[in-house]
C-alpha cells in the first residue's frame, strides 16, 4: 500500500522507524522503491548531480523535471520535493505558486521547505490550509549556507532552544514531519519527544523517528560526503574499474 503522510504519523506512534533516502532520477527511484524505502525525497541536493557547488542555483524547473522522473519510478514510497532557494521565501503567494506547480506537474505528494522563523511558519500554515502537505526542515539548512556555513547547529543552549521552538511552531503550522539536520543528538531527542509528528534525522543522532541520507553519499558516488553520512558501498571505484576494463577491451579490439 502506498505510504501516506498520516501513515508516517502512525508509525511514530507505533515506534516504527522511518526509512528515507533522496532520489534525483527514475532509475534510482525505482530501485529505492522496490527495496521498500518509506519516503523518497527529491532534494535540492540535486545540485550535486548538476555540478553546482551549493543548492542555491537549483531552479524550480530543474526540480520539477527531476521530480517527474522520480515519480514515474515510484509505486509505494511517499514522494516529497524540495522547493529550491528563492522560490518560496519572497511571499506566501510565491510559495503557493511554486508548491502548487510541484504537486500538479510532478504527481509528488508533498513539498519540503527550509526554515522555522516566523514568516516561514506563516507561509507553511497557509500552504497547509490550502491542502498542500508540507515537510519542515530545521537545524542546518543548506539554502542558508552563506549565513550558517555547513557547521552543526544548535550547540549552545540558546541556539538549541531556538531550534526546538521553531520545530514546535512548524508542528502547530501543520507540517506532517520535520527534517532535523546536523544538530546535537540530545537536542534531536528533546524535539522528537516533544512533537507528535515524526522527526527525520540527518546527522542528528539515532533517536529521531526516522533517518534520511543522500543516496549518492551512501553509494559512495559523491566527490565528498558530510561527516555524518555513512558510505555503504564505493560505486565511484566500481564504475571507474568497469569503464577502465571496457576502454582496454575496446582499444585492444577484444570487445565486442
Ligand atoms: O536536499 C536534500 O537532499 C535534503 C536532505 C539532505 C535532507 O534536504
Automatic annotation (TrEMBL):
The annotation note on the cofactor reads:
Binds 1 Mg(2+) ion per subunit.
SUPFAM superfamilies this protein is in? Phosphoenolpyruvate/pyruvate domain
**What is this enzyme's catalytic activity, as reactions?**
(6R)-5,10-methylene-5,6,7,8-tetrahydrofolate + 3-methyl-2-oxobutanoate + H2O = 2-dehydropantoate + (6S)-5,6,7,8-tetrahydrofolate
Residues holding 3-methyl-2-oxobutanoate: 44-45, 82, 112
**Cofactor requirement:** Mg(2+)
Q: Which Gene3D superfamilies match?
A: Phosphoenolpyruvate-binding domains
Top-level taxon in the UniProt lineage: Bacteria
Annotated residues that bind Mg(2+) are located at 44, 82, 114
- Membership in a protein family: Belongs to the PanB family.
Question: Whom does it interact with, and what assembly results?
Answer: Homodecamer; pentamer of dimers.
Put simply, this protein is called: 3-methyl-2-oxobutanoate hydroxymethyltransferase
